[in-house]
Amino acid sequence: MNLIRKNFSYDLLQLYLVCLIPFALIFSRFVADFSLVVVCIIFIKKSFKENIFTFLKDPFVKFFILFWVIICFRSLFSENLFLSLKSSFFYIRFMLFAIAIKSLFELDKKYLYYFFCSISFCLMIIVFDGFIQFFYSKNIFGYPPFLMADTYRLSGFFKDELIIGSFISRILPFYLGLYMYCKYLNIIGNKDGYVSLFLLISCILVLLSGERVALFYAFLSILMGALLINFLNIKWFLKLFTIGLIFLSIIFTHEGSKKRLIDKTFNQIGISNSKEELTDNDQIYIYSIHHHYHIVAAYKIFKDNIMFGSGVKMFREVCEDGYSENVFSCTTHPHNTIMQFLSETGIVGISFYFLSLFYVLKFMSINLWLLISNKDNNLHKAKIFYLLALLISLMPLLPSGNFFNNWISIINYLPVGFYLLSNKKNEL
Questions:
Q1: How large is the average pLDDT for residues 340-344?
Q2: Most buried by CB count within 10 Å: which residue of 45, 135, 311, 422?
């Protein structure tokens, strides 16, 4: 009530919009991106008004701007200047978004509590709705599960997009980091039991969604959660053992999960005698025949554009120009982060990717090591979860979405802002 009674301000508008973004990511991507842009504009306006452009000295900002300048420069010489430059030039908004979040939540720690409540409610309704769709064959809006091949896939509020598992698995580590940071600031009580239970329920829904990469990401969250929520408690291995039994029992007793997660995986990579997809000479594929030839095409594009790549979002444009092996080769993006960076940004661009990955792994290790001597430090736990969210966004070997996609980028840069907030030294 105190928040409502306050005079309206740009800070409150920013807070409302940031709290809206998790919901908008589910129901309206336009609203999510529009909210992000308004948050950035307000931040720039405040910076001019208050002359607080000190954020330009932040190592993250310098690192990002250098990468941004390089991809914009390459877009100027791409085959489709408008498509590539539109994506690369406006990519700067995600850096501004991360810095705006850091600036906003530095103002009042109560803002963090309001945002934590917002994202908690967002996750609860999407998980609740997912289970309704699983048990009753339609969600609260009446959307049925998505029929794909001969199996039903959960989609929840996303209707005909099979990304409910991806959304939950990407948000979970960030959510756990936010919970630990709120505990560190003493703005929320100890809710470890509730959070652990919700984490388990969420991961079960990801399993039931049939999204294999999302399941791996969810497993990382639940593994780290079991370790860090009551860190090194003597019962932690019992938690992991119980979780493992629950997952295995669901996989092998629920026919849809077994068919999708085990049988189809063996079929796609070509090591099963019962193949559901066309294959060439019984060869073994990288993930699947589709992923395999996306990667082959991306590598060919990279070989002809070694230094700077073909330009952001240019894989879809240049793939048909002599790089296609067969009908499986060309799509909107290579479905692998490393191959997308190589084909679209070249050696120069992927060097930024590997530096980012090295930073994340390095500081995850440092914070884990610090926890051994100070197991009750919730700040270190928060940083680890934030970095886990960033690791998922940078995952090098697994199939991935389009790294430069707006929806994915919003999810990727949310934890960046909060990590900068928790990392007062801002070391890069």
A1: 95
A2: 311
